[in-house]
Amino acid sequence: MSRLGAALPTLFLTTLACGPAARPAARPPEFAPADQAKCRVKKSSDRPLIIEWPSSDRAALESTAKRGLVVVRYSGCEMEVLPRCQLGGSYRYTATTRKLEKVSIRDADELYAQVPVGAAKLEAKLEKAGELNVAMHVVGRFDAIEPEKPELAGACDGATHVVTAMTSGAFEFFAGAEAAAGGGASVVGVGAGAKSSSKNELLSRDGEAEACAAASADASAPPAGCGAILRLEVSELGSLAKLAKAAPISAGDPGGGLGTSSPSAGPVIRSGPGIVRLHVESPDRAVEVHGFGAQRLDKVAGGFVGQGASTLLCRAPCDAMIEARLGQPLKIVGADIPDSAPFRVYDKEGDVTARVRPGSSSKLTWSAITGSIGVLGAITGGSLLLTGVLLSSADSESGSGDGLTKWGGITLGAGLVLTGTGIVLYNSGTTDVTLEGGGGRPR
Length: 443
Fold this sequence. Notes:
The protein is of the alpha+beta class. The protein starts with a helix and ends in a 6-residue tail after the last strand. It is built from seven helices and 18 strands.
């Protein structure tokens, strides 16, 4: 009995251990819509890297930023620059101490967080390589300056965000783990003689590391060859709170940047020839005034202070003070019209009105076609006519040259008509500027 009593507890515990296993807790199904990319169910990043953008898109971004603030259509993982949507304003460059930054992307979540624009196209590359890496030299950033009148104009359908800042420098974007270096790191030109232990695939690059070595913390612009845009900062159009006020830069601040330069401390410029307030009247409200060495002026006590030379001086109707005392050429530029011939205001003073008659690029194209055909026809017709006359004079009885004379005359006449048509099309297709006023001081 004592042995049986001792065995009962053991038998009881063994029976419990051999009972049915506990069922796992029920889990709700995961939300993974098959017809939506991950970026469509996440909030758009407001600081996306744009290192995977093709060269044409990067060029469009940079050229648009030189004309004013960049407006984009941004939703999920799709961003489109709207080059014909105008908001005004400009970007001011601030140099920083040169920094080397590396971003490693090892899973899809990191990919969509760091590179939301174009992430869907990179998923297969990430899965195959196991890791994506971005190596960047950062030398400064462009910050947006608030426009005087923050109103959209032009082709702005679907616009959602404005670019408030852009990080500048150089980068390399490659697939694969970071190479183990034998003689130095091989990240955008840092070090030399490196031997990689793994094969990396270069996906894109922009800028040169050697050029970034010349960066200075007090520079007014990125070094040549080290001005690639690496990262954007965007803000919804409904709130422009992130934009800085367009206040003059304090002494010692170099300023500078894309678009209209910010005013800097400098000598006071007094009224005189070449100092004008330019007003632009044009049926095309999207035209701009570009200058080569000219500068905008800000009113101060005793005169004006220059903002520094800038390609883009103002947009219609302009009404800005401009200094072009040395005969710097100005011209009217538009997205859908040919540039005007250069004009100068060195001999004018005070209020000047530029009346613009926008041209037509299509007319200039047809002018070139009809003019070329007309000149060729006139030469051919003249040659045939001359040949026919010579033949007729040599053998007047046979009339061998009569046919050449007839068709030569017809071809010559048609060529002259086409040449004249080409001249008319050219004159009506060019953008003309007529200057009025300029005989007194600005009011």
